[in-house]
Amino acid sequence: MVKTPRRATAPEPGGKTGLPSREAILEAMAQHPDLDGKRDLARHFGISGPARAPFKALLKALEGDGLLTRTRKAIRRTSSLPAVTVLDIPADADTEALHGFPATWNEVVEGPRPRVEILAADRVAPAPGDRILARITELEGPGPRYSAKPMKVLDKPRRGEIGLVRRDEEGARLVPIDRKGREMRIELGDLGTAEDGDLVEVEVKLSGRLMIPKARVTQVIGNPRTEGAVSMIALHNLDIPYHFPASVLKDAEDMSDAGLKGREDWRHVPLITIDPADAKDHDDAVFAEPDTDPKNPGGHIVIVAIADVAYYVRPGSTLDREAFIRGNSVYFPDRVVPMLPERISTDLCSLKEGENRAALALRLIIDANGHKRSHSFHRVLFRSAAKLSYQQAQAAMDGAPDDKTGPLLETILRPLYAAYATMVKARDRRAPLDLDLPERKIILDEHGMVKDVRIPERLEAHRLIEEMMIAANVAAAETLEQKGHALIYRVHDTPSEEKLVALRDFLTSLHLPSPKSDAVKPQDFNRVLSKAREVGKIQQVSEIVLRTQAQAEYAAQNYGHFGLNLDRYAHFTSPIRRYADLIVHRALIAALGLGEGGLSDGEIGRLPAIAEHISTTERRAMLAERETVDRLLALFLADRIGAEFEGRISGVTRSGLFVRLKDTGADGFVPASTIGLDYYRFAEDQQALIGDRSGETFRIGDSVRVRLAEALPIAGSLRFELLEASGRGISSSYAKGRRPPPRGKTRSHRLKKKH
Question: Are the CB atoms for 68 and 76 separated by under 8 Å?
C-alpha cells in the first residue's frame, strides 16, 4: 500500500493573475535555496499588483498541505519530500535500479538525505548523473521511503566552486583557490566531514535580504599538498569526468577476450612493444624484417599492430558514449584519467607480453630510401613476443643488452632499427618542422610530493616508434581516401599572415633572415632555426616559431598537416586513449569489410560535430595537465621564497616578463613596475620591454637571474624579482624605492595638458 502526499486546495495558476504552478514553486525552491521568503519568491516569479494576494494564498495552501514550513523569518520546504521535487541521480548509480537524492537537503536540520527509487517513465529516460524533476510517492514502511516518476530531465546547475576550509570560532570560511574567487562563510551544519585545511567542493547558497553568499560542502577532495588533490582542482575547474558510471564499468567487466573468428592468425609474428618503463597500457606493437623480394633490394617489411578497441567499444554502447564524452585520456604526474575503464585499457586491449590480443595491423613495404611501395590493413590475433622499455631497447643497440634483450638483438631489434634508418631518409627529404623542445617530467615521492624535475633523454628508440606510428597514420588516411570513405583527419593549418608578419619583424630585430614568401613551408622555418642555432639565438627563435604555428585539431575535411609536411594524416595508433583513433579504426573496418564494429551511418553524418567535440576535449586535457604541473611546481618552490634561480624570458607583455626557470621549467612573472628605475615600453615587433631613458632591453629568450618573491601553490602562480639579465645587473625598484614617472609624464605636465 502506498500513500500519496495530498494535494492542497489553492488558487489555480494562470488566468488573469498569472500565478506559477505549485510544481514551479517547489522546483524553484529546490534549485535556489536562497528563495526562503515571500518577497524573494514573489520577486523570482515577477508577482506584483493584484497577483500578490492570490500568490500569498497559494503559499499558505502549500504550507497547509505540509509541503512548506514557516519560521519567523523564512519559508522553506519541509523535511518530507513534496509531491514534486528535484532529484540528483549519482553518476555511479546502477542503471538497472536507478535511484536519486533530493537536490537540496540540510542533513543537520532534516536528518539523512532520503534515497528515492526512480521508476520507469514513458517519455523521460534519465541516466546516472542527471538532475530530474519528479513526482514523488511516499511508501509505507519504517522511516521515510519514496519512489519517484520522472517528469523531465533538468539542466544541471553550474559545478560547485572549489576552495580551502579554514575553521574558526563561528564555523568556517571557504578560501578560494584563485585570486578572482570570493571568500564565503560555511555554517557548521554545512561542513559535512570537512576538516581545517581540506580542499573541498561546495555549492553556493544565498541567504537573507542582502543575499549574502554562503557555501555548503558537497565533497571533500583531500589534502591540497598532495598531487591527487592538486590534479582534482584541474578536473573540477575544467569539468573533466573522472568517475565511470556503474553501467559503463559493468559493461566493461562483462567483456571477454576476442577469439580467432574473423581474424588472421599472426601469432607467429614476433611483434614487440616499446613503451615508457612505467606504462600500464600498450596499444602498439612493431616488427620489421628485410624484404626478400629481388625487386626491392635493401627494402623492408614493417608491421605495426594496434589494439582492436573497436571490437570491444561498439557504436552507441555505454562504453562508446562515455568515451565520446571524455574524448581522450588525461595524464597527470601520478595518475591517469582514462578514456576507457581499466578492464579495457589496461587489460583486454593492452598488448601484453605472451598473451593473445586482437589488433588492427598494418603491413607496410618500403624501399631502400624509405619510400612506401605498398601497404595493407589486416584484422588479426597476435601474441607480443616481448615488452621493452625505450631505455632497454636503446641500451641493447648501444652494446649493453640485458637478459631479455640479448636474445632479441639480432632477430628483432637490429631489423627494426635498420628499417627505421631507411625511414629516416624519407623523413629528412620530407623535412617536417624541426622544433626540438624538451619536455620535463615531474618525479613524485611516495607521499605525492614533488621529488625532482627531469628532462628525459631523447633516444633513437623514441624516434623509431614515432616514425613508425606516423607511417601508420598516413597509411590509414590514404586507405580511407582511396576507398572514398569518410574519416576524421588530424590537421594542422599553415601559419596566419598576421603571425608571419610578426615573425618577420622579430627576426629583423635580431638581424636574422626570414621566410620571404607568404606560402611558407616547414623547411623555411627549419632554415631560420638552423641559422639561429649558429649565432646562439636558438632559444629566442624557437619560442617565436612555436607561437607562429597554428594549433593542430581534428576535422572531417582535410587541409593537410603543416608541421609534419604531409598532405593527409589521421590518428590511428592510440585508440585506447583517443576517440579520434577509434573513429578511424571503425572507418577502416567498414571500408575494408573487416567484420563487426565498423563506423555506422549515423556516425558518418555526425563526423564534423565529433571532430569539433574531441578537439575541445583535447585542449581541455592539455590545459588540465599544464595547470596541474604549474600548481605542483609552485608547491615545490613555496618554501624557497628569497632563493635565486637561473632562467630565460619566455614571454613579454606590456605588464611584465614571463620567466621560465632553467632547472624545473617552472613559469613565473616579473611585473614591469618592479624592473629597475626606468619606464619600460612594450615593443611588440621585438617581443621586448625597452627602457624609455636607458634603452635597456629585455627580450624573449634572454638569460636572466631572478629571486622568488611569492608563490601561490593553489593558484599555480609564481612572482619573481629580476636581478640580472644577459649578464648585466638590474637595480630593482624593490630596493631603490618608487621609480620616477616616465619622461614627459610628470604631474605638472599632466596638469598643463589637461587644461
Answer: yes
